[in-house]
Specification:
This protein is an all-alpha fold and 61 residues long. The protein has one domain. 49% of the residues lie in helices and 0% in strands. It is built from three helices and no strands. The radius of gyration is 13 Å and the shape is elongated.
């Protein structure tokens, strides 16, 4: 059975210019389970990484 991505996840992928078809099959369930708050954290992390100095290493756990 195919996993349907929620609208907020589809919007996030569109904003990131990533096709849902490009997701590995095993990632679909993970992305489908992301809440709106988790998407907001991913957006914040993306902005922080864009603003980070190239010489800085950021570890994500």
């Amino acid at each position: 059975m195919a996993v349907e991505l929620p609208p907020h996840v589809k919007k996030y992928l569109d904003d990131m210019e990533v096709s849902a078809d490009a997701l590995p099959e095993d990632a679909w369930e993970t992305f489908a389970s992301l809440s709106g708050g988790e998407i907001a954290l991913l957006r914040k992390l993306g902005k922080d990484l864009e603003e980070a100095d190239v010489g800085i290493v950021i570890k994500v756990h």
